[in-house]
Specification:
- The protein is of the alpha+beta class.
- The protein has 2 helices and 7 strands.
- It has a 7-stranded antiparallel beta sheet with strand order 2-1-5-6-7-4-3, with helices on both faces.
- β3 and β4 form a beta hairpin.
Length: 119
């Protein structure tokens, strides 16, 4: 499914990842767009990453920098990218956020996540 117009071009999206007990945890994130997919950078020691590893189903909604949802929610499926796919995902984020081009923001624990909007 293509990226919905309500998300396309937004500065931030909020991701709802799910705990093992089914409780949603909303987190505002920077994202990149490419090939009808969203790309997000996270750390491998973050709760968001661990929740996605346990359950790839998530919800996505446009939001403000503080996480206030400003549009409709969409269902999606996340996939943790292997290291060989990171350069393409990184470029989608760098095109949108110039601050990511500065090396001090990089950590050896950074990983990339690909999100397919399903409905």
């Amino acid at each position: 499914m293509p990226i919905p117009p309500e998300i396309h071009g937004q500065k931030y999206v909020s991701l709802a990842t799910f705990r093992k007990n089914g409780t949603a945890v909303w987190t505002p994130v920077w994202f990149g767009e490419g090939d009808d997919k969203l790309y997000v950078m996270s750390r491998s020691d973050s709760g968001k990453y661990k929740r996605i590893r346990n359950n790839p189903q998530l919800r996505v909604a446009p939001c403000t920098i503080r996480g206030r949802i400003i549009g409709p929610e969409f269902a999606g499926v996340a996939r943790i990218l292997p290291p060989e796919d990171w350069p393409g995902a990184r470029k989608t984020l760098e095109r949108r956020y110039w601050l990511l081009r500065i090396p001090f923001l990089w950590s050896k624990k950074n990983v990339y996540i690909e999100i397919n909007i399903t409905a």
